[in-house]
Amino acid sequence: MKFTLLLLKAFILSLIFFPSLCIGQKTAAQKEQTDSLKTNPNGFLVRMQNFAKQSAKESIADFEADKVVMVQLKVINDIRLTSQDAKGYLKTGVDTITPKVKLEVLKADYKTASDGVFINAGTTQTYRNLASTKRIIRELLLDAKKIKSALEVKQKALSGFHYRIDSLSTAPELFVFPKDSISVVDYLRTLGAVAYETAPVDSTLKKANLHVQKLINTYNIAISQLQNSIEQVEHYEQNMAFSTLDRELPNIWQAQLHFRPFLEIVQFSTIKNLLTLKFYLLNNIGKLALIVLLIITSFIYLNSLKKMYQSKGLLNKELDGQLAIRYPALSAVLIVLSLFQFLFISPPFILSFLIWIICSICLTIVFRNFITSYWMKVWLLMMVLFIFASAGNILLQASRVERWYMLALAIAGTLAGVIILNQKRYLELREKWISYSIAIMIGFEIVSIILNVYGRFNLSKTLFLVGFLNVVIAILFLWVVRLINEGLLLAFDIYTVQDRKLFYLNFGKVGNRAPVLLYILLVLGWIVLMGHNFPLFEFFSKPFLTFLSSERTLGNYNFSINGVILFFGIMTASVIISKIVSFFASDDHLVGSKDDNTQKRGLGSWVLLMRISILSIGLFLALAAAGIPMDRITIIIGALGVGIGFGLQTLVNNLVSGLIIAFEKPVNVGDIVDVDGQGGTMKSIGFRSSVITTWEGGDLVMPNGDLLNSHLMNWTLAGSRKRMSLVIGVAYDTDLQKCKEIIGNIIETEERILKNPKPVVLFEQFNSNSIDLKILLWTRHLRENNSTKSDLIVAINEAFKKNGIKIPFNQQEIYLHKLDE
């Protein structure tokens, strides 16, 4: 447009100065003007140059003005959009009520946690109360930090909106006004509208930012108070740990110090324990879900074992060696909770108490009527003593009532233990180690009595609980090991096709007694559970845990011992799980009946792929857990590529062949095959090699590459059927039609012979001394061929005898020629 206007101006000037270009005739004035231009040409050029400069200035000014207008429109639009975003965020993203409410709840929980430690401290601190207080305050500290982080994110967003609006509002282009008065008025109206829209939002942003900052400051104060409280509690714990034998209370017969009312202690202890349990469970939802999943899996396994034993009539009334499958659900709960309670790091006592009570109830029902009534009563007595001792341990503050309660219960436990050991009925015990745990209980309770009498309350209370706890835990662990061993042994006996080495246990040598390794793990678990009750345990274990978790550097790689252990642990678990999957998926009962070939192939065809998937997932999880960077993995893969190129061709060929077999499925676990004249059943398909159980009973290990390249005949793939032929010779004078009818009747009555395809009886040839008949038929399953053929021969032989049909045999006549003397 500007270029067009410029051309128009130039045209008008040309008409003024050069009218002869447009009009043919020249006037006198024009001639005079032309003559003056000819005589003074520099004047015209000067005017044209001045005109060009003026036009260029005007064009530049117009361009700059247009550019300013475009920037102004963009800035105004950005201000409006930012204001709209800020309004939306202020409506939905800024919630200051919830942090306030949570802060009040946090203060209330902190007051509950402080009870008995910082307020109403009483005459002495107890280890259990300090531990509960520290655990609650730590959880409160984590919650406070999370809320503070969320508030800081909100503050950052509010500050970002405010900064963006301010930076847009101070753009220099907004203060450049148009030269036209009408345009100036319109522009000022636009600015006024934008200011009217933005001012309330900007003011609200400032207020919200200030409010959030006040909340952050409040949380900073709360966090500082919580951190100081944790340090103070740890100081109390340290002093208690290193002054364990110091007197805390007067002797039990002396005048006692002031204690809180007993009911008040019970009330605040209950509230505090429940609060501790709530926080701990909320932070360990994943572990709880894992335990539930393991319980369900274990129940499915044990229940399937029980059904198999029931279907085969192998269950015995005495339950000897079969206790694990008596109540599969209870056994699953008992085994999983006993073993996987160690997933919970430093759990509160009330959670551990609930786990132990659930396990004890399950065990009581499982071995009811299996152990003698005497030892059943002993177990029930130990459970009752443990429950009463645990009830006292839930109390978080010392009292005179509790001291006498502990003394009476410890004396009762000591007397009960002495009487039980004096009975000497050890031969009735299913697990002999139980008597040792009762002896340990007696020792602990005697020491607890002495310490309680002489005012060493905390150590006395610890030994008082540990004495009864050690019996319950020892019995639980001993029976859990027994049930695990029984479960594996039952599977070993019932699973017949799979490779038994997958269990890593030689049950032929071990028998009904569990491996020593399980008992070693049992003792270690017993020590850990007992140690958690002593104040010194945390101080001794903390340096060890720090040593495991500390970062170390090897070259450019940072690692921790925890990460290395976790890597090998995950990989070991992956290998074991993959082999157990192969173990349970390869038996006949899992792949359907003999006639159900479709179901059979559907289950077994994915076993190798499942193993590969489990190992691959385990590898990636192990790498992630150990923090191994992926660029190191690419170096290892490159090195493996060089190795493959030079010397691992055969191994890689077998591995790839295994994958091809898994995907193409030319053969499957349980298939009846012939490989180069060697017949048998596919037992397993592994990564490198496969195993075929031959008809002679041996296991043929064949590399996957050889299996894939050999002339493989898969009878199962064709429906597990094989045509059978039987040749019979009859005498030449036999009535052939009658012979054919007799054979046909025998075939009709045989249920193992298929009617479709129809059996055929053919007269094959005239032999030297007989007419040969050939019988062609199909049996229902390949495995029935030999037995069917044997029964047919017997039946045909008897029928031929009854009907006078002779089966000739080779005869030779010998002539003896007597020579003349």
UniProtKB/TrEMBL annotation:
It comes from Pedobacter fastidiosus. This is Mechanosensitive ion channel. The chain crosses the membrane at residues 279-302, 323-344, 350-371, 378-398, 404-421, 433-451, 463-481, 516-537, 557-585, 606-627, 633-656. Keywords: Cell membrane, Membrane, Signal, Transmembrane, Transmembrane helix. It is a multi-pass membrane protein. Residues 650-716 form the Mechanosensitive ion channel MscS domain. The keyword Amino-acid biosynthesis does not apply. The keyword GTP-binding does not apply. Pfam families: MS_channel_2nd, MS_channel_3rd. Belongs to the MscS (TC 1.A.23) family. It is found in: Cell membrane. Residues 726-807 form the Mechanosensitive ion channel MscS C-terminal domain. Residues 1-28 form the signal peptide.
